[in-house]
From TrEMBL:
This is CLRN1 protein. It comes from the Eukaryota. It comes from Regulus satrapa (Golden-crowned kinglet). The gene is Clrn1. The lineage of its organism: Eukaryota, Metazoa, Chordata, Craniata, Vertebrata. The chain crosses the membrane at residues 97-123, 135-155, 189-209. Belongs to the clarin family. It is a multi-pass membrane protein.
Length: 232
């Protein structure tokens, strides 16, 4: 493939990696990881609410990695409340999982930026070291993709298995008990999914530029160059 086309492909991949880093950073600070509704079971049982009356006891909740807000509905109108998930709620939520999600988000940002830098370096520079060449690009993208997958798995288990929404809704609630009525992952969670797919797309772009996958190289092909891997 001509050098100009390779440069264009690496520029596109670099921009995608940089956008992935920005998207992950924006998702970390957002409150739109989970949206749902919570039912005030105590209030509903007191008045034996059913049908249309039950809506008076269904509030709303949305939260992210660090903060969130909810509307508390116990039959007397909604009362919006803001709360801090991290670090105030670490006593009631699975702290190790939650901190791991935050750490993997930070790692994803770092390696997405590293990948973007090396893509641009390969596009406009004269790379010669192995980690500056295709092997390194595959490595950075593999780490980014792995971090994105781990974020989604850990956060999903935190929400679904450990009932994160209920624990947040019942924090410092002495009289009333809340139960999750409905919940769904929101925009920031799906942003992480897209950021997990971007490294896979970048790997295909590297392959499209004419470079073999590292594990598909034949041991007998070409001349062994040691730590040197010329790209052009």
């Amino acid at each position: 493939m001509p050098a100009q086309q390779k440069k264009l492909i690496f520029c596109i991949a670099g921009v995608l990696s940089f956008a992935c880093a920005l998207g992950t950073a924006a998702a970390m600070g957002s409150q739109l990881w989970v949206r749902g509704t919570i039912l005030c079971t105590t209030g509903a049982l007191l008045v034996n609410a059913s049908g249309p009356e039950l809506h008076k006891f269904i509030g709303e909740i949305q939260y992210g990695l660090f903060s969130g807000q909810r509307v508390r509905q116990c039959g007397l109108g909604g009362r919006p409340l803001r709360f801090s998930v991290f670090p105030d709620l670490l006593r009631v939520i699975p702290a190790s999982i939650h901190v791991s999600v935050i750490l993997f988000c930070a790692v994803l940002i770092v390696f997405a930026l590293v990948g973007a830098g090396f893509f641009l370096f390969n596009a406009f520079g004269s790379p010669y070291e192995t980690l500056h060449g295709p092997v390194g690009l595959y490595l950075w993208n593999f780490i980014s993709c792995s971090c994105g997958c781990l974020i989604m798995i850990l956060f999903s288990s935190e929400v679904k298995i450990h009932h994160l929404s209920e624990k947040i809704a019942n924090f410092k609630e002495g009289t009333f008990t809340f139960k999750t009525h409905s919940e769904q992952f929101a925009n920031s969670f799906w942003t992480i999914l897209v950021c997990s797919l971007v490294p896979f797309l970048n790997a295909l772009l590297i392959r499209f530029a004419g470079f073999e996958f590292p594990f598909s190289r034949s041991k007998d092909s070409g001349t062994i160059t040691g730590a040197v891997d010329l790209m052009y």
